[in-house]
Amino acid sequence: MRARRAAVRAASALVATFALTAGLSGFAGPATAASGTAPSPAATATGPVTHEENDRVPEGSVWTQHYFPSADDSGTELHADVLLPDSLPKGKKVPVILSIGPYFAHSGQTGPEGFTHAGPSARFQDFIEGADLFDNGYAFVMVDLRGFGGSTGCLDWGGPGEQADVKAAVAWAAKQPWSTGAVGMYGKSYDAVTGLIGNNLDQRALKAVVAQEPVWDMYQYIYSNGVPRPNVTGTAGAYNSIATMEPMADDDPHYQANARYEDTHPECLTENSAGYRIADQRDEHWTSRDLAKLAKGSDTPLFVTQGFIENNTKPEEMEEYLDNHHGVERGWLGQWDHVRGGDRVGDGRLAMGREGWYAETLSFYDQYLKGIKPSVRYPAYAVEDSTGAWRAQRTWPVVERSVGLPLGGGSYVDDGGASARAALTASGTPAPKRAQPSGTWDMENAPATEQAPPEGLAEAQLKSLRAGDTTSSFFVWSRPVKRDVRVTGTPRISLKAKGEGNIMLKLYDVAPDGSAVMFDEQVSLVESGRLSVDLKSTDWTLTAGHVLAVEIGSIQTGSWRDTPSGEIIQVSGARLELALDDPADDIATQGDRSPFLDTYLSQYTVRLPAGPPSFSVVPGGRL
């Protein structure tokens, strides 16, 4: 067992290359207490610890630890770190903010962080301080999912086991003697996924969910319509590494025994890795993790954030989830990467560009956990579009017209972009080989941007097409739009294919000067017959005079581990379905341009002069 754990630690160093990109400290080896210093006490259920006794306990709170069973009769035991207001009178009850995930281990979030003594995770210290949580009369509870931190059991990435953990945690938090019985959930990324799971379970005690940058369907994080993503193996490795982190030397014996569960159950890691290798979206492994579909009829008040252009937890099946959710909704949606509502970039600007995250979140919880009427009238949805402008609206998406646009057909070689790169080289610009992405990131951390396409690639390919060559893709062009029009919701492309291999679908916003921004994309396996593919959800404004270009072809760029078939794929009867909105109707709301938007524009702007038009984005010219 010592040899196996040493191997896991060695692998974790590789995982850290990608997983630890959000400012967490690097792997520091086995967690130990500092020698020669007085130990800081670790809490128990009956032995509360304050900040004055242990500096890892947030100021204004008292820390205790608890253990309780999961809800699936599997024998899994869950661990909870509980933080109560230190001024809470005996017998007084408070509502509970609950966060459930894999990142609450005492030694660190995604790897050991060099702590000298045990203590509760500081993962959401920004929220605790920003919302002044304890002075405002809330408890904060962090529960380790099975297989992580102080919980036993085999990790079960978003599956039935973790769903049972969420159910048990909500019920446990509601029944504690210090709890009013009203529970809200809070999280970002993985612990936002557990918030969506909580909503789907429809427990009476759960009164509100705040979910920042979640995954809406677990399959979509690993595969795109059968095509594996670069993290198909790396994500499994990342979570196996997190699950096998050593506890702190001064953690209590109960916690230490639970944290080493994998030592005597090595099958947990093997089984976790095996699940990611299932490519069939219809397999029960994935249908049981399709959170968007499982949300049907749910009604817990829900506050979400989503970056339309982020490269980690992408807006895939977001619209389906929100359509299936029938309760109160609040949202911040815009042009950012994998960040929290209150995060700031290096120069101090807000990463999402909008002020007031903590105040609005606290107001949301006050309303649904305490019954306090908000003193500020917040918009149901605050949305930043591709121009950096913010608007308020009652729902998302707002659709003024749905259109089905004929794209016709064409042919391409499924060669992974080899012919496109050959065309670029022939034009006098040596084209680098397409880099095979190496992804070992988890849901919390991933590369902020993907590798940029070689400069001139699209334009060189366009010249080959005009010369009559069949190359890695083909393009279809709209007529210039006569007035500003917004593409919103989830675009869909359907077509008939002849041949087998891969297909990549891209949408470009093409300016009159020939500069073009790729603003939406998706890939799929393809075989002869009809195919329909949902792209990512988007909110992108085409300004007057701009052209919408559609590229259909082999997977040439982006983060996928595709295997080109080498076949010529013939496409016919292609059709693009769009939801359109009129920016002239926007109601402005507070917010600045999110800093990441300019990073994205720099990364994804290419030279692509418009070709002969074959369709109109707004048939008839009226929205």
From TrEMBL:
Keywords: Hydrolase, Signal. InterPro entries: AB_hydrolase_fold, CocE/Ser_esterase, Galactose-bd-like_sf, TAT_signal, Xaa-Pro-like_dom, Xaa-Pro_dipept_C. Residues 31-48 have a biased composition (Low complexity). Residues 1-33 form the signal peptide. Pfam families: Peptidase_S15 (PF02129), PepX_C (PF08530). It comes from the Bacteria. Residues 362-581 form the Xaa-Pro dipeptidyl-peptidase C-terminal domain. Residues 31-55, 424-456 are annotated as: Disordered. The keyword Signal applies. The keyword Signal applies. This is Xaa-Pro dipeptidyl-peptidase C-terminal domain-containing protein.
